[in-house]
């Protein structure tokens, strides 16, 4: 028999990145006993990787900025596939969420009059990103982490126990959620450290597990990004939307290998960095799509004037939305004008004095100097597309973040809809604050209504058996590292940034084969901090999420945002009305078409008719 | 392509362990963590190591490489000679869990004992105004990625387990300094707290922490020394001393250090796994007024609450029992 540690909580938050911590704070403030479950140590979440900033229309730098403009930029960036209500709430609430962080102790960079400074970023009409040098994500995590500690101190003063009402379970992985009578009843997992099992009885669960990038070969994502939340939600009967849309960050390092996949923040381009091919040409001018023609400079001279005089000049094309830049780089490399490692050159060294670069991009400078002995003030960087962010995720109600299963909520990267087909830089930090808070609030309200629940013993036993299976097979099973490597090959080559019908079909066949082999995965060693076992359990999550992406990518016969089909290079207004919804049918992914919610007229009125015409069908107009 | 290099990696757990030798392929441009990952993928699938961003931003992969506290992801293989043996061991100051993974709970305990940011009264969110030069001083300390290398290298606790309960370590001195220098923090006793509660006095400024900081935070010069100096100012300044003698306590602007309750120090230095505690006792049922029901007469059931929880019905269904009746050994013997 297996020993299982049991806990009862009002609200269980799975994931301790920005969204998870913000949700937990809100649930605890609502008076609910809250658990935070983190795969890593407390404060190490992937959110620390976000460099650029958090987008919020505070209007501190340009007073013309407001939520309507932010909303418009977000919808444009997502090619109008966004859940308009989420984009609206996000634009409206982001400033309050940022200001709130200051009351938790955050120290953003300042404007001359002492307000929070805001910087330019790709796709944003005005300077909008609250930032701290280029380590905004770290500031956000640390601030939320310290707020949680301060709440624990309050509880300690009141109850004599720091963990009376909010507790962090660190280095703990959830492998199963329980649903009984159509509603959530608990979560099951193991401590990475000891391999011991743990069961959380709860009626309200917030998924904030982040993304899926670990299924790809070149990725900026860490080992944690195995699509756990996506897969857990699917297995409980909830649905995923937009899974074909993955953001490949246009500028990840491709060389040297020690920094392969690591992002070069867009602010390098915002601060004057330009992209050149190996012939020395500043090629982005050739890749401005028609819909953006009006907003972007046509000559190098005009583009260069913009950095100092943004009101009277149009923006340089290096600041186009990410997918446009990624696609341009990909085309240059395919045309043979890329570097040996398959990238192009991002040059800031020749554009700004070394001193300025170090001041504006300190951790960027520091990181590459330390990691790879590359001096960004002296030589251009070798960059190319790297898998960065998944727009798709759990289908949620915009206002409450509730998923299709009662008691299940989702916020941050694991949720879908907010960013449509493509996310603007800076919108993810604000997204996880806005919807993290909402998730915590509504999960607490749900717990208030339902009380506590308890999963059945039989379901828990089944979860234990699944978790132990790879260890039982030991060396006789398939090697998890080999399987993971093959999955990354398939996804990287066949379901990468540019997609084709034949390759997608091949990927689906090969994923099906891999799925059978993953069932036979085996690991040696015990349960105590055994990374092989951890990977073996993560594999089935990665696999089901990859299947969603591959199937949805094959189905959507157009190119839009983070989904580019070589055989269907144009955007099709008919597809703008459709969300592809993934659910689980036994072991297989089922794909369905679902109409997009229709934008309210007053929101439609924020756009010029000519702009809408680029996205919408005639009858919609 | 790659060359074979000699690695010695400590393997074991809290009961003991030893260095194991490996010959492993190393390619151009790789860091130590890449090599550890190759070991996992090719030779030792269960080699335990913490890591996360692999970009020097999260501070997870702290280890000791050739005896020096380093981040595995920030230590380039090109910094070693081709023939040099690379020895990788876990952080020494913290109890080993397994292989390169240590129990760093000490740090989370200490974080809790430090009073949090105190927001200024009467300043609404959105109304905070600070100048860049003023926030920059604290921002330096907020660069900290909590890799705990400074904590690991600090000799006050590195070989002195007994100091752990009285000493918070460099990581939390910079946190105290950060709050002390925060333009809007409402507390003004940060330095005194550092002295009285955090054990700032134990530090004798050997600067080891500054040396190992991967973020290059000037821990000693910019945080510890200024904190020490100003604590000294206040404690030994003759005018302050005279003032203390002349004025009544409530006439002094210097507030006495708050007597915050001493947290259970035992848990911090026992090195036990913090989540492995026994079950929490069930709360007693309270009435509508939120108070304990003292008379059985007013309780909705007779006698005291069940120690198993009032919602538990007996007998338990046999398939839910965690007990197996001992039976004579059979062929498949459990």
What is the fold's blueprint, element by element?
The complex is a heterodimer of chains A (621) and B (334).
Chain A: E1 4-8, E2 11-14, H1 18-29, E3 34-37, E4 54-55, H2 67-77, H3 84-104, E5 118-119, E6 129-130, H4 136-159, E7 166-169, E8 172-180, E9 183-191, E10 197-201, E11 204-207, H5 228-236, E12 240-241, E13 246-253, H6 267-270, E14 274-276, H7 300-306, H8 322-337, E15 344-347, H9 354-360, H10 362-372, E16 381-390, E17 393-394, E18 408-410, H11 427-450, H12 457-473, H13 480-494, E19 498-499, H14 501-518, H15 531-555, E20 564-565, H16 573-576, E21 578-585, E22 588-595, H17 601-604, H18 609-615
Parallel strand pairs in A: 1-10, 2-3, 2-11, 3-7, 11-18, 19-20
Antiparallel strand pairs in A: 4-6, 5-6, 8-9, 9-10, 12-17, 12-21, 13-16, 14-15, 15-16, 21-22
Chain B: E1 3-13, E2 16-26, H1 32-42, E3 62-65, E4 68-71, E5 86-89, E6 96-98, E7 101-102, H2 105-113, H3 132-142, H4 149-153, H5 155-158, H6 170-181, H7 190-196, H8 208-212, H9 219-236, H10 238-246, H11 265-270
Helix pairs in contact in B: 3-6, 6-7, 6-9, 7-9
Structural features, described:
The complex is a heterodimer of chains A (621) and B (334). Chain A is an alpha/beta fold. Chain A folds into three domains: 4-245 and 391-458, FAD/NAD(P)-binding domain (3-Layer(bba) Sandwich), CATH 3.50.50.60; 247-387, Flavocytochrome C3, Chain A, domain 1 (Alpha-Beta Complex), CATH 3.90.700.10; 466-585, Methane Monooxygenase Hydroxylase, Chain G, domain 1, CATH 1.20.58. Chain A has helices at residues 18-29, 67-77, 84-104, 136-159, 228-236, 267-270, 300-306, 322-337, 354-360, 362-372, 427-450, 457-473, 480-494, 501-518, 531-555, 573-576, 601-604, 609-615; strands spanning 4-8, 11-14, 34-37, 54-55, 118-119, 129-130, 166-169, 172-180, 183-191, 197-201, 204-207, 240-241, 246-253, 274-276, 344-347, 381-390, 393-394, 408-410, 498-499, 564-565, 578-585, 588-595. In chain A, the strands form six sheets. Chain A has a five-stranded parallel sheet. Chain A has a four-stranded mixed sheet with strand order 1-10-9-8. A four-stranded antiparallel sheet of chain A has the order 17-12-21-22. In chain A, helix 3 (84-104) crosses helix 11. With 334 residues, chain B is α+β, with helices and mostly antiparallel strands. Chain B has three domains: 3-102, Beta-grasp domain (Ubiquitin-like (UB roll), Roll); 105-120 and 131-235, Orthogonal Bundle (Fumarate Reductase Iron-sulfur Protein, Chain B, domain 2); 238-252 and 285-329, no CATH class. Chain B contains eleven helices and seven strands. Chain B has helices at residues 32-42, 105-113, 132-142, 149-153, 155-158, 170-181, 190-196, 208-212, 219-236, 238-246, 265-270; strands at 3-13, 16-26, 62-65, 68-71, 86-89, 96-98, 101-102. Chain B has a five-stranded mixed sheet. In chain B, helix 3 (132-142) packs antiparallel against helix 6 (170-181), helix 6 (170-181) packs antiparallel against helix 7 and helix 6 packs across helix 9. The relative contact order of chain B is 0.09. At the A-B interface, helix 3, helix 4, helix 10, helix 13 and helix 15 of A face helix 1, helix 2 and helix 3 of B.
